[in-house]
Amino acid sequence: MHQCAARIFLLLLALMLLTLPSAQAQEDSDGDGYDDSDDAYPDNPDAWSDSDGDGYADQPGTNISDDCPNTYGLSKKYMYGCIDTDKDWVPDVLDDDIDGDGITNNLELAASNALIKFDIFDPESVPSDSDFDTIPDVIDDDDDNDGWLDVVELERGSDPFDEYDTPFNMYGGNTGWFYVVGEGFTTEHQESGMELSASWVLSALSSELIIPIGLVPLYIAIWVIRHRNFVRFDTELESIDTLEDLKEAEERINESLRRRRIHTYHGLILRNVVEGLEDRLDSEWFKNYSRGRDTEE
Predict the structure, then answer these.
(1) How far apart are CA 50 and CA 35, in angstroms?
(2) I need a surface site. Which of 36, 130, 158, 207 has the fewest CB within 10 A?
(3) Those residues with Cβ within 8 angstroms of residue 58's Cβ, 6 or more apart along the chain or in another chain
(4) Could you state, in order of their start, the residue ranges of all structural domains in the chain?
(5) N-terminal to C-terminal alpha carbon distance within the chain
(6) 271: Cβ–Cβ under 8 A, 6 or more apart, which residues?
(7) b or e along 3-39 (b: 16 or more beta carbons within 10 Å of the residue's beta carbon)?
(8) 292, 228, 236: which is closest to 266 by C-alpha?
(9) Other Cβ atoms within 10 Å of 198 Cβ, number
(10) Sheet architecture: strand order including 176-180
(11) Which of 162, 224, 221, 166 lies closest to 197, judged by CA?
(12) CA 147/CA 192 separation, integer angstroms
């Protein structure tokens, strides 16, 4: 009786073992060959380990693969799992501002010298930037960003670190203007403009520019004469309708250019006008000539 019961028990036990899932299958949910207890990604059959523990897989070719598998990092732009000092998600190796202090790595290094070395990995090690234009003062030509170069402000006596103190207002109120061709006068600094100001005159009087200043009226007279000659030629070319007249005008323009009665750039402009007229008149002559031959035939 007892033997029969024992046999029945063993048969039932064997049947249960055959019908229940194996222990091995229960421990490997994604079927990648690694037990769930040892699998860093138990639900991902393409990934199973994370050596540096940064959340990105050692295995390549997945959407969570670690580009720096042996280094802990949290970057997730361009590269995954690499060192990201300023936590902007861009890996240091691709970040032009590693410490996120607003000054690029190259400019920090350029601002360093034998006594001061700025650390591109330390946001507390940052060169001064008075006008917050991300260019360190030591290499910034305009520290207060008022449009005036520091060397000019130092020469004139205004504060190169104060955007409200310029060579135009350093004597109280506005004492200067820039004249820009085609735009007129402005108090804003203009690189291409002609400056007329009290600070410029006083600076020139105390420097070697005193002689050139005396020649300013002569320069102005020469400019006016050349400009008038240019306008006269330009107007004359507009009324020319024959190749003979165009050739004569071209010779006079060339002579004026040789004698410096017009500026070089005036000559280039007039040359372009002459070439355009020549092409047009040649075309008209050819049409008239062709039309005349057709009439004769």
Answers:
(1) 15
(2) 207
(3) 47, 49, 50, 51, 65, 66, 69
(4) 150-214, 217-289
(5) 139
(6) 253
(7) eeeeeeeeeeeeeeeeeeeeeeeeebebebebeeeeb
(8) 228
(9) 15
(10) 184-186, 176-180, 194-197
(11) 166
(12) 12
Tokens at residue 10, please? 């063993």
Q: Which among 150, 139, 117 is positioned nearest to 126, based on CA atoms?
A: 117
Per-residue pLDDT of the chain (297 residues; tens, 9 = 90+): 556 666 666 666 666 666 655 544 458 888 888 888 888 899 899 999 999 999 999 999 999 999 999 999 999 999 999 999 999 999 999 999 999 999 999 999 999 999 999 999 999 999 999 999 999 999 999 999 999 999 999 988 899 999 999 999 988 888 899 999 888 999 888 888 898 988 888 877 766 655 666 677 888 888 899 999 999 998 988 888 888 888 898 899 888 888 888 888 888 888 888 888 888 877 877 776 666 555 555
Residue found by looking up tokens 């085609």 in the block: 182
Please state the separation of Cα 216 from the chain's center in Å. Answer: 38
Residue linked to tokens 């008239």:
288
**Tokens, residue 187:** 């108090």
Residue whose structure tokens are 């917050």: 132
Amino acid at site 237: L
From CA 69, how far away is CA 50, in angstroms rounded? 7
Q: How far, in Å, are 75, 112, 136, 172 from residue 106 at the CA level?
A: 21, 10, 11, 40
